[in-house]
TrEMBL record, chain A:
Record domain Ferric oxidoreductase: where: 13-135
Organism field: Kineosporia mesophila
Stated name of the protein: Ferric reductase-like transmembrane domain-containing protein
Origin: domain of life: Bacteria
Keyword Cell membrane appears in the UniProt entry: no
Predominant localisation class: membrane
Keyword match Transmembrane helix: yes
Phylogenetic placement of the source organism: Bacteria, Bacillati, Actinomycetota, Actinomycetes, Kineosporiales
Record key words, sorted: Membrane, Transmembrane, Transmembrane helix
UniProtKB/TrEMBL annotation, chain B:
NADH-ubiquinone oxidoreductase 51kDa subunit iron-sulphur binding domain span: 317-399
Protein name according to UniProt: NADH-ubiquinone oxidoreductase-F iron-sulfur binding region domain-containing protein
SUPFAM superfamilies hit by this protein: Nqo1 FMN-binding domain-like (SSF142019), Nqo1 middle domain-like (SSF142984), Nqo1C-terminal domain-like (SSF140490)
Cofactor(s) essential for the protein: [4Fe-4S] cluster; FMN
Annotated NADH-ubiquinone oxidoreductase 51kDa subunit FMN-binding domain residues: 51-200
InterPro entries to which the protein is assigned, alphabetical: ComplexI_51kDa_subunit (IPR050837), Nuo51_FMN-bd (IPR011538), Nuo51_FMN-bd_sf (IPR037225), Nuop51_4Fe4S-bd (IPR019575), Nuop51_4Fe4S-bd_sf (IPR037207)
Presence of the UniProt keyword Iron in the record: yes
Organism ancestry: Bacteria, Bacillati, Actinomycetota, Actinomycetes, Kineosporiales
Claim: 4Fe-4S is one of the keywords in the record: yes
Species this chain originates from: Kineosporia mesophila
Ranges that cross the membrane: none
Superkingdom as given in the UniProt entry: Bacteria
From TrEMBL, chain C:
Gene3D superfamilies xrefs: 3.30.70.20
SUPFAM superfamilies, per the entry: 4Fe-4S ferredoxins (SSF54862)
Name of the protein described by the UniProt record: Ferredoxin
């Protein structure tokens, strides 16, 4: 494979991974309220959340592995897990490493959720809210495409969708949007 | 293993015929020892064997064989004497701790010997904490006993709630994948026994299982404590606590205690707020034992008897109890949290004659929605009461559906409102 | 062999995922909590073991457990 192809693959898989993580975060926020989200029932939301997360991780692995072989990035195995040590744009690449670490932590604890218990799982799962913006900023700051319009457009769409979901499923809006959650139905008939 | 009867040690004084737990005239240790003597020095295995032969069952309400519970708890165990008595209609545990605290402490020591426990807790109503403390000060317990005042709530006496409270948590029922006898206090095997059960244990350790079973019936051995409410002002006047032998008939207990000729009673609630209504006078001669009450779908539970006069409305009384029970939901489990208020509402509507035909179906339906769906027995106990009321007051239920009431049938329009 | 599906009612919030995964066994009551279609304990027959395990795994509150697993 030529270096160019590697570079394209690395960039492309990074962007796809970010888009998928955006879907994961949006669905995660949407499902927190306990109500059906966007017309999908909870089961569908939960399944898509899970599958998209695993798929995003696959693309993330592709992204990282291709960069290991990339002559420009000069990434080594240590940089993959320890942030801010790379030779090429240490800060921006370091953010990516950090996001990878967080993504791994969130994924592993989710797979072991029934072993570690709800409380520990939840504590780690909150890191997803840090992981996603870090990954986003990493994409803006470290890539070749960093000032291209199309990447900025994708980033904007990602940010807007997550904010939209967060706002629309905020508990304060519970009374006005969608039927109330089961717990507030109470027993009055 | 062969069963060997234990012969009481020579010189050991047996309590007189009749009262066993209440044989001592005062609660002091001197009187206690003068009445019962000291516990002979026998091995834990021998003690357990005597408990097995005694047929003793738990007196907290569930009636589980005590020997089986004792066998299940092994290792670095903890013993808990449960005197929380969350059941507001019951007074027997508090009365026992007032009159015979040393017997309960004896029982804790015996249970600790059998299970190998080094540590024990006494979780009792706040009002009797001083009584127990004083008794503990009079002697040197063979096991470390920590006295803890119980939270005053209906569900606080549920085993998991007791363990949660003693683990420094809230006094609320808990769901656990482990049984308490495997993992309870501090994740150690824990034996939770009602204080009355332990007091009986203190006697069995002295006089043996055969002696214990010498009174009572074959399936319900020994004596039991019963809280009997007078009929006049049910649930407001102070009840009396009696020690009675199993097998005694309802008539024998209610005649002196109900405060009204037994012919004027239409039913009796047996077991407390989670209990069962039993019709009178048909059941007047039913023996108070497992077998005797079985045909009425009832069990002695914690020994509460609440008689109902023929001039009173059983549905109204039941409605007020169900409303109370709904308020006592710990609000932890959805079906109980939402279902019990709905059940109470439907039952109250029926009792008030506000529903018309089909009102009873609504009650049954809401009862079905809570059954088997909780971390503790609160929902199930409540529906047991409700279903027995519908069964025993069947005629009255029909009348109420038409806005009338059997208790007011003499009034104009049959008491219609 | 059937296995009982045990609900930790103190944890359950009636999110309804289990009822969606096991429609042969469970429905949701009017408050959203899982309700057995037949009275008594929630029994899962062998052929539904897979979806039952999935329900246990996916429960947002980890409120489910398959007996003897």
């Amino acid at each position: 494979m030529s270096t160019d192809a590697l570079w394209y693959l690395a960039r492309g898989s990074g962007v796809v991974s970010l888009i998928l993580f955006t879907v994961v975060v949006a669905l995660g926020i949407g499902t927190r309220s306990g109500r059906p989200f966007a017309g999908m029932n909870r089961l569908v939301v939960a399944s898509v959340h899970r599958s998209a997360a695993l798929l995003a991780l696959v693309f993330l692995v592709i992204h990282v592995v291709t960069l290991l072989f990339d002559p420009y990035a000069q990434l080594n195995l240590v940089d993959v897990l320890l942030p801010f040590g790379s030779g090429y744009r240490p800060f921006w690449v370091g953010l990516g490493t950090l996001a990878l670490d967080l993504a791994l932590a969130v994924t592993i604890t989710s797979l072991l959720r029934d072993r570690i218990g709800l409380r520990a799982w939840k504590a780690v799962h909150w890191l997803a809210y840090a992981m996603w913006p870090i990954a986003l900023v990493h994409g803006i700051g470290s890539g070749t495409d960093r000032s291209t319009l199309w990447l900025l457009a994708i980033d904007a769409v990602c940010v807007v969708s997550v904010i939209a979901v967060a706002v629309s499923s905020h508990p304060a809006l519970k009374a006005t949007s969608a039927p109330a959650a089961p717990k507030t139905l109470a027993w009055r008939e | 293993m062969t069963m060997t009867a234990m012969t009481p040690a020579p010189g050991l004084k047996m309590p007189p015929e009749g009262a066993r737990l209440f044989a001592a005239p005062d609660p002091s240790q001197a009187t206690h020892l003068a009445t019962y003597g000291v516990i002979p020095d026998v091995t834990p295995a021998q003690l357990l064997e005597q408990v097995r032969m005694s047929g003793l069952t738990g007196r907290g309400g569930a009636g589980f064989p005590t020997a089986r519970k004792l066998e299940a708890v092994t290792g670095r165990a903890v013993v808990v004497a449960n005197g929380a008595e969350g059941e507001p209609a019951s007074r027997k545990d508090a009365e026992l701790l007032r009159r015979a605290p040393h017997l309960v402490i004896d029982g804790i020591e015996v249970a600790a010997r059998i299970t190998g426990a080094q540590e024990a807790y006494a979780y009792v109503r706040a009002e009797v904490v001083p009584n127990l403390r004083q008794a503990l000060a009079e002697r040197r317990p063979t096991v470390k006993i920590t006295v803890v005042a119980a939270t005053d709530a209906f569900v606080s006496g549920q085993e998991t709630a007791v363990v949660s409270r003693l683990n420094e948590g809230p006094a609320l029922p808990r769901f656990s994948r482990h049984r308490i006898f495997q993992r309870g206090i501090g994740d150690r095997p824990t034996l939770v026994q009602n204080v009355e059960t332990l007091a009986h244990l203190g006697l069995i350790a002295r006089y043996g299982g055969v002696w214990f079973a010498s009174t009572g019936t074959p399936d319900s051995t020994g004596t039991f404590l019963t809280t009997v409410h007078p009929v006049t002002e049910p649930l407001t006047t102070a009840p009396t606590v009696w020690e009675a032998a199993h097998g005694l008939s309802l008539r024998q207990i209610l005649t002196p205690a109900a405060g009204r000729p037994v012919q004027e009673l239409q039913a009796v609630l047996i077991g407390g707020y989670h209990g069962t209504w039993v019709p009178l006078p048909v059941a007047l001669d039913a023996p108070l034992s497992t077998a005797g009450l079985e045909q009425y779908g009832a069990g002695l539970g914690a020994g509460v008897l609440i008689p109902l006069a023929s001039t009173a409305c059983g549905l109204e009384l039941t409605a007020s109890i169900v409303a109370y029970l709904a308020r006592q939901s710990a609000q932890q489990c959805g079906p109980c949290q939402f279902g019990l208020p709905e059940l109470a509402q439907n039952f109250t509507a029926l009792a008030a004659g506000r529903v018309g035909r089909g009102g009873v179906d609504a009650v049954r339906q809401s009862a079905g929605l809570v059954e088997n769906r909780g971390a503790c027995k609160h929902p199930d106990g409540t529906t047991r009461l409700v279903r027995s009321a519908l069964r025993v007051f069947e005629k009255d239920v029909t009348l109420h559906e038409y806005g009338r009431c059997l208790a007011r049938i003499g009034e104009p329009y049959g008491g219609a409102r | 062999m059937t296995r009982a599906l045990i609900v930790d009612w103190t944890a359950c919030e009636g999110r309804g995922l289990c009822a969606g995964l096991l429609p042969e066994v469970l429905t949701q009551d009017k408050w959203g909590y899982p309700q057995n279609l037949t009275p008594g304990p929630i029994l899962v027959p062998d052929e539904l073991r897979g979806p039952a395990r999935q329900a246990v795994r996916m429960c947002p509150r980890l409120a489910l457990r398959l007996e003897s697993e």
